[in-house]
Design goal:
The chain is mostly helical. It has 13 helices and no strands.
Amino acid sequence: MTTAIRPAASDSWPVRWVLIVFAAVLATILFLLPLAAIVAEALRRGWEPALAAIVEEDSLSAMRLTLLVAAIAVPVNTIGGIAAAWAIAKCDFVGKRLLTTLIELPFSVSPVISGLVYVLLFGAQGYLGPWLQSHDIQIIFALPGLVLATIFVTFPFVARTLIPLMQEQGRDEEEAAVTLGATGWQTFRRVTLPNIKWALLAGILLCNARAMGEFGAVSVVSGHIRGQTNTMPLHIEILYNEYMFVGAFAVAALLALLGLLTLAIKTLLETLTDRRMGAHA
């Protein structure tokens, strides 16, 4: 006697509704309520104090620095992520698993540890510190240190977004293009890139969101110099520690809004990617 396996979709409607309600309640408690609390605290005294805190000079400086760090780190990680994903998905070579492991290393190492490593290497008492000082080069407590720390913690996002998609697509189209005489650059630009463009944009958005919101690694290498090395997350911490709650929550609400916008665009891009994959299949 053969026992048929019941598909998950055949579960009774009470079970499905219980699961849906549980997921909705959990999402509300963990995500929506904290976001609502941030906005409520920012607007506790009205719009004017919140806007004044956002346009205050130190806040604007933190925003500019955050955008500058992201503007440098994201393109670097985009190029590196594309190269790593191409190598892993399209090529066979010794050390492929090691490369995959290295890409995921920032996910398993605390950002604070990565920041301490840069201090150990480039700090005044670090291995390269005396040489850097003798050549009047400052990395720690300056923009280069912020960029290096951000690049490290955000590197996996583009690569890990592209690798599964490129592996699923296979190598047939690229091999056909090479057989027809296309160069490596022509193959990438005319064959690979059109197939991964939406996933690539989603990975870039994730990388950018993490770059703007990174705290741990940046906190270690920044020195917390107000108006010079404070990014938005660090500026929020300083405002909160100084009991300037309206300013802290106003800047936090702005940062959260940027994150929500990024999530919405990412969801749209993933939908476009799924539709393209369905049409391709």
